[in-house]
């Protein structure tokens, strides 16, 4: 398969035109691979789009996983990651969740953010955090993208559980293109 888009931990959400990867043998999955086993069976600098929806929180090593995503990304690749918010009921209810995430979690990989500047030794993987959207649950999930509404949600979520249920983080892979072939 020649696709330059990869859907990691796809489960039954098979995306046409993408390489769909899961650890389970499910109809439509193109590559069966356990995402806790490194390196993943893909060449470096291959993918221009990476999608990982409600998978990262199930994996034991967030830093190593993001480093592997960075490795398989082409320069400037777009990475979309959905994760449950750290104090949502969904995060705390599922016994298979190993890690929680806040609006600052991905800042450790963005060289323009204070956390990455203070602790650049955590990882060599670098991404630009382009956007963070939040999902609230009002009967069904509703995506919140308006900047003022996101600010209000962040303030409320610091004080009350269950305000934000999930986050969608849009990252851009930062790579030195003078070194990448």
Descriptive notes:
- The protein is α/β, with parallel strands linked by helices and 181 residues long.
- The chain has one domain: Vaccinia Virus protein VP39 (Rossmann fold, 3-Layer(aba) Sandwich), CATH 3.40.50.
- Helices cover 19% and strands 30% of the residues.
- It is built from four helices and eight strands.
- Strands 3-2-1-4-5-8-6-7 form an eight-stranded mixed β-sheet.
- Strand 6 and strand 7 form a beta hairpin.
- The longest helix is centred in the C-terminal third of the chain and has 13 residues.
- It is globular.
- The two termini are 21 Å apart.
- The relative contact order is 0.16.
Strand arrangement across the biggest beta sheet: 3-2-1-4-5-8-6-7
Say which CATH homologous superfamily is assigned. Vaccinia Virus protein VP39
- The arrangement of helices and strands along the chain is EEEEHEHHEEHE
Name of the CATH first level:
Alpha Beta
What would you call the structural class? Answer: alpha/beta
Unreliable spans: none
Report the sheet with the most strands, covering strand number, pairing sense and barrel closure: 8 strands, mixed
List the helices and strands and how they pair.
Layout: E1 5-8, E2 19-22, E3 31-32, E4 47-53, H1 62-72, E5 73-84, H2 89-93, H3 114-118, E6 127-138, E7 140-144, H4 147-159, E8 166-173
Parallel strand pairs: 1-2, 1-4, 2-3, 4-5
Antiparallel strand pairs: 5-8, 6-7, 6-8
Short summary of the structure?
19% of the residues lie in helices and 30% in strands. The two termini are 21 Å apart.
């Amino acid at each position: 398969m020649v696709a330059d888009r990869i859907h990691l931990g796809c489960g039954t959400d098979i995306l046409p035109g993408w390489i769909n990867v899961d650890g389970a043998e499910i109809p439509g999955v193109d590559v069966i691979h356990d995402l806790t086993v490194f390196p993943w069976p893909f060449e470096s600098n291959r993918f221009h789009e990476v999608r990982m929806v409600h998978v990262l929180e199930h994996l034991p090593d967030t830093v190593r996983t993001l480093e592997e995503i960075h490795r398989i990304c082409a320069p400037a690749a777009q990475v979309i990651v959905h994760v449950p918010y750290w104090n949502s009921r969904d995060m705390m209810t599922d016994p298979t969740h190993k890690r929680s995430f806040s609006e600052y979690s991905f800042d450790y990989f963005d060289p323009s953010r204070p956390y990455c500047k203070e602790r650049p030794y955590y990882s060599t993987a670098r991404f630009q955090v382009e956007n963070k959207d939040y999902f609230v649950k009002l009967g069904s999930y509703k995506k919140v993208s308006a900047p003022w509404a996101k600010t209000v949600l962040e303030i409320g979520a610091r004080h009350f559980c269950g305000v934000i249920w999930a986050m969608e983080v849009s990252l851009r892979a930062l790579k030195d293109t003078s070194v990448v072939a």
